[in-house]
Amino acid sequence: MANNAAANELSDKLASQKLKEEDDQVVNPWTVTAKDGGKIDYDKLIDKFGCQRLDQTLIDRIHRLTGRTPHVFLRRGVFFAHRDLNDILDAYEKGEKFYLYTGRGPSSEALHLGHLVPFMFTKYLQDAFKVPLVIQLTDDEKCMWKNISVEESQRLARENAKDIIACGFDVTRTFIFSDFDYVGGEFYKNMVRIAKCVTYNKVVGIFGFSGEDHIGKISFPPVQAAPSFPNSFPHLFKDKKNLRCLIPCAIDQDPYFRMTRDVAPRLGHHKPALIESSFFPSLQGESGKMSASDPNSAIYVTDTGNIIKKKINKYAFSGGQDSIEKHRELGANLEVDIPFKYLCFFLDDDDELEEIRQKYGKGEMLTGEVKMKLTQVLTEMVERHRFARAAVTDEMVDAFMAVRPLPNMFD
Amino acid sequence: MANNAAANELSDKLASQKLKEEDDQVVNPWTVTAKDGGKIDYDKLIDKFGCQRLDQTLIDRIHRLTGRTPHVFLRRGVFFAHRDLNDILDAYEKGEKFYLYTGRGPSSEALHLGHLVPFMFTKYLQDAFKVPLVIQLTDDEKCMWKNISVEESQRLARENAKDIIACGFDVTRTFIFSDFDYVGGEFYKNMVRIAKCVTYNKVVGIFGFSGEDHIGKISFPPVQAAPSFPNSFPHLFKDKKNLRCLIPCAIDQDPYFRMTRDVAPRLGHHKPALIESSFFPSLQGESGKMSASDPNSAIYVTDTGNIIKKKINKYAFSGGQDSIEKHRELGANLEVDIPFKYLCFFLDDDDELEEIRQKYGKGEMLTGEVKMKLTQVLTEMVERHRFARAAVTDEMVDAFMAVRPLPNMFD
């Protein structure tokens, strides 16, 4: 235990060192780029950030503790890294619950599939562990980074809340809040306590800010850090000041939580644990995150079946061979094939996926067939989402966002 | 909002704000220092900051517009500089009201006379112009700069609020708030809007922060700027988004409001106007530092008559001559005489002050006599304050700090 803690301490510190020019990949909350448009090397990222690989032992342990089949995103390595997940599970095994914290920067009206990944996974965690969840909508961040007005950021936050609610969260266990609505009181006090512990040089090291950045950016990291501490939510955790926090997120958010973990012991809190995903690839391939500015790089939850079909057929990068003959002979390169990768995210049936892996890899299946399967899977999924979202009323949004105790937190 | 003495307490610790070799004086919210322990040169300060001198024409105009004798602090040049006071008076003359904004950084339990100066003057302005007033208690700032806990900062804010209320403010026109209580909602939105407009390089230029400073310090200037804009207070100024703001403060706060004025037009607000005071000198003289660690450098509102008498007799720096004979011959040097300077602040009667100026200056009065007069004036003033403060109940503090409309704002 002690060794483990010391190792964590060290790795947090190492990871906080500044990203250097000579780095062959840059991953932070604003930039996900590999050199020369190559793929992100997740092993290197784990090394560099100092987090741990989420291995089969841990997945088996989650299976055992929850009595549920681990989520597809666990079985297929979408969530592939963690920090202190062992500690959370140790405590859980002894009967100590925790809470989940995740969030979204509401920068666009329509979400794409990549945006849904953390929420689909968080819903699974909530159901499996039966724990409360706080979801932060960082409308203040987006207002500052994207140069959109306060009012537009708030509108987007509310629109995004509907998509999040449509993922099936339990209103008796879930508190959704926007920073513009919620910052103040105990939350603001924690922002101040956190800010006191972090120098400007430190945030430059972690986030790479420059003197030309406005001070809103420099002020923001404590806003994203504060929900990691239960006393930021007195209406939820008034008598649970030692409650542990588990944060499911994409690994580009790791810098925020390295900073948070550094500060936590000085403020008398547990370090938040993390469970971190890789990035959902764009239709064009795996060199980075999807871009909201190119609608053809992603499939949106607002896309119709026809659009989904067209996007997949036209844009999804194929690892298949140039001719049918060559394909039958060599098979598809699954390492770069986007239709197959997307199926790894969203095709639930392990046997069916394995069959496609085999047949497509050997050339027995053609790209067209795999694309057709993907079109079917995604169309169903997107239609299901759209149906669920249409049922989300303003009253439901108000209910999720009401500052209230959660009646059903740990049952 | 730090004023002079509170700022002095902090100055030693802030390596980043050291007096630069080429500067002969440094005045900012945390440091007030002249080279070689000399006096602050206020003319140079006006030049450097780019504010205007508050001249007799303006004082006469205030007299005419309010129908009241201008406050001693105006007649005697304690408030000596301004920004855009003309604009406020032009608008006022046309029937357009404004609101007052001042504040205090609650760093100590007992206030000294220097702390009362801005509040005594603000009360006069409120009465004379019949305008609403917001008073910000920057408990967040003090928590961050002085390394005291959130809870202790909040306690000090409430204690200080009692002393402020004891200055006689009208509860129907005055809203007192602590940042820890009030930051959030529209106020937080303005903090974000302001922060977006100010780069890190800019705050370094204005405040002299360094990379070793924590990000709480860098985040704070928008907190002090926000009350300058009426939409930070929807419960007060919901329908008065164009209301002008006048800020009475010590001139060490000018940097905050230079920044605020810079930002104001970009956010669609009037630049706040300022009316700025010189610093209240310590008992040891104008080059001496008032410091919390030396209770004999200042007279506190908690000092008894005996303590006041002793402090004045023992510590008040005298401009009188070494021997009675020499004093009768040369008279006192009023430029450095603290008892006389204190009388200039607190002896209301212009004729009596003029008489003392003449007689003491010519050697007809002795230091002992002037000190006796000052003891009498301050004892009365402090006892009056203590009496008023004892009558301030917790219910009254709650009433002033309640988030509410002000029923009597402009009558």
UniProtKB/TrEMBL annotation, chains A, B:
It holds the Pfam family tRNA-synt_1b. InterPro entries: aa-tRNA-synth_I_CS, aa-tRNA-synth_Ic, Rossmann-like_a/b/a_fold, Trp-tRNA-ligase. The keyword Lipoprotein does not apply. GO terms for molecular function: ATP binding; tryptophan-tRNA ligase activity. Keywords: Aminoacyl-tRNA synthetase, ATP-binding, Cytoplasm, Ligase, Nucleotide-binding, Protein biosynthesis. Its EC number is 6.1.1.2. One of its GO terms (biological process) is tryptophanyl-tRNA aminoacylation. GO terms for cellular component: cytoplasm. It is found in: Cytoplasm. Signal peptide: none annotated. It comes from the Eukaryota. PANTHER family: TRYPTOPHAN--TRNA LIGASE, CYTOPLASMIC, TRYPTOPHANYL-TRNA SYNTHETASE. Belongs to the class-I aminoacyl-tRNA synthetase family. This is Tryptophan--tRNA ligase, cytoplasmic. It comes from Kalanchoe fedtschenkoi (Lavender scallops).
